[in-house]
Design brief:
Largest sheet: 4 strands, parallel
Radius of gyration: 17 Å
Helix content: 25-40%
Number of helices: 7
Strand order of the largest sheet: 1-2-3-4
């Protein structure tokens, strides 16, 4: 969707959402809410879609990638207004070093978000098992993804410094700093509120 600046309210997309609601099937969106290079206001689009289709179960992959300080309050508002909006926790995809670093910068805010909306958070890794993939990739993704949610700090020694860490000092998520041995987690282990 981001790559082509796609309109979520395009008739073809609205029909997909309508059918998903009609059949009780969740719709997963791979969407970067708050992406600076789009002409779209995805927060406004999501509000309109969820209001017009109140039984649609919509899942935003990777926390919607909107956990920067400017965008997260809008996602919090959406989650509060629409209990049928879900967020998966997957961050271990192609750019895992970048997204874990950004999530580490926003760990306190993400923790508050998860604690405020525990029934709307879905576990994810962004990695799937396949005969073509090494088992280690899935094991690393599970370890990092579970650790990020449960622990105060995690280590991901498999992470590699990418060019992104060499070109910027700061982005909208905070300092651009590569430190795979000190990734701030959400520290949610033992939180009874998540089980209720």
């Amino acid at each position: 969707i981001k790559k082509f600046d796609y309109d979520l309210r395009r008739p073809s997309m609205l029909e997909v959402f309508r059918l998903a609601q009609e059949h009780g099937v969740p719709a997963l969106l791979h969407l970067w809410v708050g992406y600076g290079e789009t002409r779209r206001d995805y927060l406004q689009d999501l509000e309109a879609i969820l209001t017009s289709l109140p039984r649609l179960r919509l899942v935003l992959a990777h926390f919607g990638l909107g956990f920067d300080p400017e965008t997260l309050p809008g996602l919090v508002t959406l989650a509060t207004r629409h209990e049928n909006l879900y967020f998966d926790t997957s961050l271990y995809g192609s750019f895992c070093e970048l997204w874990f670093s950004r999530a580490s910068n926003q760990a306190t805010s993400l923790r508050e978000f998860v604690l405020a909306h525990p029934r709307q958070i879905l576990f994810g890794t962004d990695v799937f098992g396949s005969r073509r993939k090494r088992r280690q990739e899935l094991d690393d993704a599970m370890r990092a993804s579970i650790g990020f949610l449960e622990q105060e700090t995690i280590q991901c020694t498999e992470f590699r410094r990418t060019s992104y860490f060499q070109t910027l000092d700061k982005d909208k998520y905070g300092p651009v700093h590569f430190d795979p041995l000190h990734i701030q987690g959400l520290g949610l282990a033992g939180e009874d509120a998540l089980l209720g």
